[in-house]
Input
Amino acid sequence: MRRIDLFLGFLKLGALAFGGTLPMARTIIVDDRRWLDDPEFATLIGLCQALPGANTCNLAVMLGERFHGGVGAFVALAGLLIAPIALLVTVASLFARFAHLPDIHAALLGAPAAAAGLVLGTAVKMTIRIRPGPRVAIVAVAAFLGSAIARAPLLLVLCLLLPASFILAGGRE
Output
């Protein structure tokens, strides 16, 4: 893969992914470009979600670095951020001007639900394609219970589940 391909792939992602980039990232990286397969994508996005910062930015840096070192990390991140920053500046100026209008406020009420639906849909699609075993399911359920039900801090959940997942895997890769 050339650096321009990396830049254009992440430019497409940054320009087209609205309401959360994970579903579109998976489509571009796994289905369209075939840079990773589903298990590799799931592993990498899991790591990116555990790190501080925006998940997709972390993903761009990690993939860019994997394929072209530090320059690749910069190229991928630049491609990812150019379009959204331009759009954000435009939308921010328009929002400041029109946010008080009731129709604009009403139109934005469904955005969080749509974003949550995209994330859940991608999680289901990844789970079906990866077909995790019972050990992986135990870790996933424990993570859900710890973060969503018990409302434990994510860092605490990760610190407890990383060793547990290693033990469940039997120390294998």
